[in-house]
Specification:
The complex is a heterodimer of chains A (about 625) and B (about 425). Chain A has about 625 residues and is α+β, with helices and mostly antiparallel strands. Chain A is built from 23 helices and 21 strands. In chain A, a hairpin with a 5-residue loop joins strand 13 and strand 14. Chain A is elongated. The chains are: A alpha+beta (about 625), B mainly alpha (about 425).
Chain lengths: ~625, ~425
Amino acid sequence: MSGYRPHEQNAQATVARVVAVVLLGALAATLFRGQVLGSSEWLLRSEFNRLRSFPVPPPRGIIRDRAGRVLADNAPGYSISILASRPDSVLATLGRLREQLPMDAARVQAIEAQARANPHQPVLVSVDASFDAVAAIEERRSAFPGVLIESRPKRRYPAGLVGAHVLGLVGEVSREELEQDRFLGVQAGAVVGKAGVEAEYEALLQGKAGTRYVEVDAVGRISSFRGSPGVPAQAGSDLDLSLDLDLMEWIHRIFPEEHAGAVVVLEVETGDVLALYSAPAYDPNLFAGVLNPADWNRMSRDPASPLMNRAVMGRYPPGSTWKLASAAIALEAGVVSPLERMPVQCRGRFRYGNRTYRCWRPEGHGSLDLAGAIRHSCNVYFYQLGTRIGLRRMLEGGNRMGFGGQSGIDLPQEEAGIFPGSRQFWVDRFGYEPSEGEVLNLALGQGPNSQTPLKMAQFYLAVARDGSAPAPALRRSASTSRGWRLDISRESLEQLREGLRRVTATGGTAHMSSLEHFDLIGKTGTAQSGGDRPDHAWFTAIAGPWGGDPEVVVVVLVEFGGSGSGVAAPVAAKAADFYLRGKHGVPRDTIQTLLEHIRAGRSTAWARERPST
Amino acid sequence: MTSSWRFSWTRQLPFVATLLLLSAVGVAMIYSAGQLNIPSPVTSRLWLRQAVILGAAIVGFLAVSRISARWFEWTAMRGYVVCTVVLAVTLVLGTGSGTAAGTKSFLAIGGFQFQPAEAAKIATALALARLLAAREEPPRYLRDLLVPAAVVAAPLALVVLQPDLGTALAFVGIFFAVLFWAGTSWPLLLFAASPGLALILSFDLLVWSAYIVAVMVGLYLYRYRLYLVESLTVVLANVAAGAVALPLWNSLAEYQRNRILVFLDPALDPRGAGYQLVQSKVAVGSGGLFGKGFTDGTQKRLNFLPEQHTDFVFSVVGEEFGFVGTVLLLVLFGFLFFRMIRMAELSKSPFAGLFIFGTFGAWLTHVFVNVGMTIGLVPVTGIPLPFISYGGSFLLMSWLAAGIVTRLAGEDP
C-alpha cells in the first residue's frame, strides 16, 4: 500500500461534505417551503380532511292557542346520517342499515343522489328513526362505521286530529323548495312547513340551523365529536294563534260522524279565527317525520280527501245563506227598504219572462218584508229583489264583497270563491251571453256561485259588525287588512240581523237550535250538491249575549248533510254556546239547544220568555 | 486482541451518541405513530418491539465492535457470497410482510422474519471495500470498474426482482460512494452512471438523442484515458438502456408506474396513487413551524397518513414537531454524516475508509430518498429512514454496520 492511500483523500472528503450539505439543504429548503411558507394552506387541508360539518337542526317554534295551550311542539327524535369518504361506501352502509331501518327504493335513490352530489358531506338517511331502530344500530356500532345518530327535535301535535288542517304539516325540504327564495339559508334535510300555519309562518318558526363538526378518519369513521367549536342552532320563534283548542275539540266531538264538512268560528270584534275545523281529519303526527308512503297513499287516494282543509279549500254552492248577501246588495243599491213588501205575494211561484220560478214552499209565504223573507228564506221575495238589483249591480256588489276572491286569511292554500266577475264569465264558461234572468238564480245563491265556508263566515262577520269585514286572522291580532265594507246604514244592518233572528225565534226554521243563555241568530242553507246525493247543509250563525253586541260568527257546512236547520244549525249553536259559556263564565253543559232541552226533559220556559223584537 | 490492535472508544463517542439519539427518536416516533383515535391493537405496540430490537441491536453493535478489522477484511468475500446466495434463496422461499405483502423480501427463520437484503448491503460494502483496497492505484479505466460493478450488480438484481426498488437504490449509493472514495475520476463515474441516465432520459427521443451526442463528445474529449472498446461499450450501453426503457417501463408493476407518474403530477390521482404523497405533504405542511405536538398529529391520528410507522415516519415528525423538528432531525443526520466522512478520512487503512464511506453512501441515499419522498422531492419509493423507521432487520443491520464502522475507525493497526 504505497503511494495509493484512498483513505487520505482530502479532496474527496470535501466533495462528500458538500454533497451531504447540498442534499440535506435541498430537503430543508423544501421543508421550509411547505412547513413555513405554505403551512396555512396545508393546515386548512388537514382540517378539511378530518372535519365534516353538518347542520344542527333548530327546534321549531312552539305554536300555542289563545289560552297558551300547546298546539305544536317538539318531541325528542333521532336522525340518522351516514358519513363516508366515497358514495360507494355510503351505499354499502345504507344496504346494512336497511335491515334496521325500512326504506323504499325511492328513498334509497334520493339518498344515493345526495351522496353523489356532496361526496364529503354527511347524508341524511332518516329524520325520524324509531327508538328501536336507534337501539339496534347502537348495539352493532362496529358494523356501522360512519353512521351518525343524532337527537333531532321532531314535531308533535298534542291536539292530533283536531288541529290537523289548520296547523298543516312539516316535512323534509324538497329539492325544488331549496331553490326558492323563501327557503334561502335552509339546508338540505331541514324540516320545513309544508302546509297550513306551519308553512304560512315558516320564516318565523324555522329558526336558524347551527353547525357542528365531527372528526372523521381516513375511511370516514367518526373518531370524535370534538374539533372546532360549532355554531349553536337558534330556536324558531314561538307563535301564538287566536285559535281556541277547547272549542276545536268540542267541535270535533259534536260534528256529525261519518260526514265531511267544515266549521269556521270567527271572533266578531277582531276577525280572529277561533276555530277552523275540517272533517274528515288525519293525524298530523304521522307527518312529523318521514311519512310512511303507505299512509300517504292511503290518505291522498281516499275519496273523502282527509288531507283537504274544507274550511278554506272546499267550495260549495252557498244556497240560501247567500240570500243575505242579495239583501245587502239591494240595501246598498237603495232598491228596497227593509219594511217594504214586495208587490208579488208568494204563492209558491214567480213568473219572469216566459219562465216560471218556484219557491221552495209550494203553498207560498204570502206578503213579506225583508226580515220576513229572510226568516222564511222566501224565494219569490228574492226573485223580485234580484230583478230590482239587476244583473250588473248584482255582479258588482258580489265582487265588491270579495265573493270572487279569497278572504285573505293567513294560510297558504286558500281557494278563491267562484262568482262571475262580469257578463263575460258566462261567455267564457258556458258560451252564451247571459240574460237578465240570471240574476234570479244569483239572488238565491244559485247559479255560478261557489264559496268556501270561511268566505261565507267573512260575509256574516261584516253583518255582525258594522258592515266591515277584515281578513280573518289566525295569528293573534295579525289582521292588518281592512278587508271590505258594506255601504249600508246601521238600521239596515239591524234589519238584516232581525231577519236572522227570526230564523231561530219561535216558528223559525232553526228555532230548535236556539240557546238558553245566548242570542243566536242565523241563516240556514240547503244547497243542491248535484247528482242524486243529499244536499249540502249550511248554517251561518251570529251569536252573543242577550242584548249585547254579537261576539262570534259560526259557519257550519256538512257535505251531503241534507237539511241546514236539522244538521248544520245544531252544530253551529252548540259551538257558539260552548265558546260563549266559557267566555261569560256560564258553566258548560252538553244540553245546549232547545231540542236538547226538550229531549232531556228540561224546562224550556226560557224559550218562551225570550225577548222579542 | 493484542496490544498492537489498540481500540479507542473516545473518538467514536460522538458517532455512537448520535446513533443512540436517532434510535431513541425512532422509538418515540413509532410510539406516536401507534397513537390513533381508533386504535389498532397491533400498531399501538410496535414501539415496544422496536425498543426490544434496539436493545438487541446495541448488544450486536458492542459485539461487532470487539471483532478485529482484519477479520472483516478476511471474511468479506465469503460473507458476500453467502449473502448473495441467501438473497437468491429468498426469491424462492421469501414472503412479504405487512403492507408489502406481495413481495418476496423476508425470510422466516423460527418465529422471526428477516430481510436478507439488509445484511447483503453490509456484505456488498465490505466486498467492494476489500476489492478496491487491494488496488495499487485508483481505477483509471472503465474495465477497472467491471468487477466492482459485477459485485454490486448481483445482489442489486436479486433485490430488484423481489421487487424492492428502495433497497436497490441503496446498493447504487454504496457502489458510487465506494468508487468515489477509491479515487475514481469524475468522468469515469459519469460514464459508469450514463446508462442509468439514458434510461431516464429516454422518455423523450429528442432529449435522449442530444444526451447520446453529449456522451460521445465526452468520450472523445476523454479519449486519451479510455480504450476504444470501452468507449464503444459506453455508447452501446447507453443505446441499449434507451432501447430497453420502454419494455422495462411496461414490465414495471402498475403501482410502480403510478408512483413515478404521480411524482411528476400528484394531482393526477389524488385518491389513488397520489394519495400517499398528498396526505404526507398535508401532514408535513400542516405541522407548520412548531408542529401539532407529540402524538397529536391529526393526519396520523385519523389514519390519513400511509405507512406511518415505516416509510412515512418522517411525516409524523413533520406533523407533530413542525419545521423546527424536521430541521433538527436533518441536522442530527448531517452531524452523523460529517462524523462518518471524518472517520473515513482519519481511518488508518484503505479498507476501513472505503467501508465507512460506503456505509455513509448507503445511509445518505436512505435519508435523502426517504425524506425526499415524504415531501414530494423524489418519487415515492419504499425506503426506510435509518434508525427511525420501524423495521427490525434494518435497525439491527444498521447498528451492526455502525459496529463495524466504529471498529474500523477506532482500530489502530
